[in-house]
Automatic annotation (TrEMBL):
<dbReference type="InterPro" id="IPR037401">
    <property type="entry name" value="SnoaL-like"/>
</dbReference>
<dbReference type="Pfam" id="PF13474">
    <property type="entry name" value="SnoaL_3"/>
</dbReference>
<feature type="domain" description="SnoaL-like">
    <location>
        <begin position="26"/>
        <end position="139"/>
    </location>
</feature>
<protein>
    <recommendedName>
        <fullName>SnoaL-like domain-containing protein</fullName>
    </recommendedName>
</protein>
<dbReference type="InterPro" id="IPR032710">
    <property type="entry name" value="NTF2-like_dom_sf"/>
</dbReference>
Length: 166
């Protein structure tokens, strides 16, 4: 009986270490990804994403599939200056057995504080970003002013999207 309990304890302990190790690897991937953008390192930046990766930007029209996001981003990287995001807070959650993870992060950016979140999946023993969402963090007391500022553009976009469905 002692051996069974000891084996269960060891298995749980190893799973805990494995999960922490995976979180450290994921943290490094995300940090390296942001660093690649800051350094305008196009190949490394997109090398840390899956081939079918998606990037959702702060504009309602920015639902970039990998190929389109590459095309959009290339001129910024070619100029030697893409964007600079630094995580000031990050939470990582891992399902080691299924080979995927999700995260959220608070970022210091040229747009002030932003929120990033997304999903990574493990491909060939490497964590890759499969889906990333960037949003501007707006203090609750400023939401009303932001809604007023974007109302006209949102109305036009909603109308266009509704007509597109028909």
């Amino acid at each position: 009986m002692k051996h069974i309990i000891l084996n269960i304890f060891l298995a749980i302990s190893l799973l805990g270490f494995s999960q922490e190790d995976e979180k450290m690897q994921i943290d490094k991937v995300l940090t390296d990804w942001h660093k690649a953008a800051s350094n305008a390192d196009f190949e490394n930046y997109f090398g840390l994403m899956t081939k079918d990766g998606v990037f959702l930007g702060t504009d309602a029209t920015e639902n970039w599939q990998n190929k389109e996001f590459r095309a959009f981003s290339k001129p910024y990287f070619d100029k030697g200056k893409a964007w600079s995001f630094t995580a000031v807070e990050r939470n990582i959650y891992v399902n080691v057995e299924a080979g995927f993870a999700w995260f959220d992060e608070l970022l210091d950016t040229q747009m002030e504080l932003c929120r990033g979140s997304g999903v990574l999946k493990k491909e060939n023993e490497e964590w890759k970003i499969a889906h990333y969402v960037l949003s501007i963090a707006i203090p609750n007391e400023n939401v009303k002013d932001i809604v007023i500022a974007k109302k006209k553009n949102d109305s036009i976009l909603k109308s266009r999207l509704k007509n597109k469905k028909m």
